[in-house]
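Researcher: Quick test of sequence recovery. Tokens follow.
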């Protein structure tokens, strides 16, 4: 490459990098503007610190910054509408913005009184109140403190184009790394070996790492949440993966269930297909305007229909029999957290519907731990007597025992679009024949040095 060509490449790279940086700045600016539009005057205060010593997701969402000593102030009706306090006192956004200002963190207490002058209302995150003790005197001047969380939550529920592209990459990395593992699974490996292959796949694809990782085999697969142990994989086992890789602070969330031997047994196919039918029926209905609870009901009904066909559910309308097998919810948001703003959003979910820009999981599952029929589970004790449960248990036990030590969960990340949805994790197989086909293509052992 001659010097002229090299210079041209460097110039193009500089232009691209500057354009990308400017795009990011615009994204965060738009988010802050939307917050101010939702405020009813007053002043909003965001700190980068949290009590858990983790990244404050609301603060990062509005700034893209990881400064551990930073504070953002928003004043919708002020001449200066945005003030950022950082350790260095630098903020590139404020350099050419008359309505934005950058200050050093050690100036916060002194400057805040001036910014609050004439205001009687302050918006803060009630979950971060403990981290605002250094400005408690200034806050005591306000006649009203309002929780900013509902405003931020409603924004983070709908992903902007920038977030969607990041999450697509997080999903790609996770899916491709999970496919690596499928080709490596065989009896004799440990669950921890599978975890190492996944983490190697993340690193090779430049992900900063995992947000969580489950590789649960045999009896371990019957736990809803698990990790990866030194348990040795055995022929006839099934493995439940529940994994997610980070990309630019955003995480994916994929669950897949595969047989250690590379081929599902008859019993494994029966449970797997019931779960897959449930998931596919629900995803088909994850479209704008559909109620979240209606789609959950579809997933549950199809799952229960499958169990009725197998003789495991005797009355499909019986609440406690349904609850006995359906042990967790089937969906949540993903984003800066694996359950991104979900716990705040779901508090009043009755009439909420799917909207374009939402990215949500769909993850039905069935689990058959040993001994589960021996006594009435606590979660259904208010719904059924011990005698009635014993009668039910005695009737289904011969069938239930066929599936003991088996857990199955299938989870995809789904982007709601204007006219339907897009499954972002579709490159990792979930049809039985496709899983078995991929697992036949074994990776060379020396690739992983086991």
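Model:
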């Amino acid at each position: 490459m001659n010097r002229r060509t090299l210079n041209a490449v460097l110039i193009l790279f500089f232009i691209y990098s500057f354009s990308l940086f400017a795009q990011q700045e615009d994204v965060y600016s738009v988010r802050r503007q939307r917050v101010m539009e939702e405020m009813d005057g007053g002043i909003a205060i965001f700190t980068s610190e949290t009590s858990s010593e983790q990244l404050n997701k609301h603060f990062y969402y509005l700034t893209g910054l990881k400064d551990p000593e930073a504070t953002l102030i928003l004043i919708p009706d002020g001449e200066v509408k945005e003030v950022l306090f950082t350790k260095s006192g630098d903020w590139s956004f404020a350099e050419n913005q008359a309505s934005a200002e950058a200050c050093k963190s050690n100036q916060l207490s002194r400057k805040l009184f001036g910014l609050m002058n004439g205001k009687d209302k302050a918006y803060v995150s009630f979950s971060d109140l403990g981290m605002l003790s250094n400005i408690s005197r200034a806050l005591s001047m306000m006649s009203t403190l309002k929780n900013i969380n509902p405003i931020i939550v409603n924004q983070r529920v709908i992903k902007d184009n920038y977030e969607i592209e990041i999450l697509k990459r997080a999903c790609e990395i996770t899916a491709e790394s999970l496919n690596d593992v499928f080709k490596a699974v065989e009896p004799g490996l440990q669950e921890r070996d599978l975890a190492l292959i996944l983490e190697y796949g993340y690193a090779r694809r430049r992900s900063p790492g995992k947000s969580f990782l489950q590789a649960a085999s045999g009896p371990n697969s019957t736990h809803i949440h698990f990790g990866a142990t030194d348990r040795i994989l055995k022929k006839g086992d099934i493995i439940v993966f529940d994994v997610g890789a980070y990309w630019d602070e955003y995480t994916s969330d994929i669950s897949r269930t595969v047989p250690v031997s590379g081929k599902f047994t008859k019993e494994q196919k029966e449970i797997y297909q019931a779960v897959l039918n449930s998931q596919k029926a629900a995803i088909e209905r994850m479209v704008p305007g559909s109620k979240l609870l209606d789609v959950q009901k579809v997933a549950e009904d199809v799952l229960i229909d499958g169990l009725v066909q197998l003789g495991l559910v005797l009355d499909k309308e019986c609440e406690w029999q349904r609850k006995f097998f359906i042990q967790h919810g089937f969906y949540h948001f993903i984003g800066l957290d694996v359950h991104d703003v979900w716990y705040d959003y779901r508090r009043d979910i009755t009439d909420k519907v799917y909207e374009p820009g939402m990215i949500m999981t769909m993850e039905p599952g069935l689990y058959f731990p040993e001994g589960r029929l021996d006594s009435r589970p606590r979660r259904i004790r208010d719904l059924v007597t011990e005698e009635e449960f014993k009668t039910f248990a005695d009737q289904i036990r011969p069938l239930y025992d066929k599936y003991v030590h088996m857990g199955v969960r299938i989870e995809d990340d789904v982007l709601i679009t204007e006219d339907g949805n897009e499954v972002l994790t579709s490159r990792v197989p979930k049809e039985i024949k496709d899983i078995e086909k991929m697992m036949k293509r074994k990776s060379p052992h020396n690739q992983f040095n086991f």
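The longest helix spans residues 3-38.
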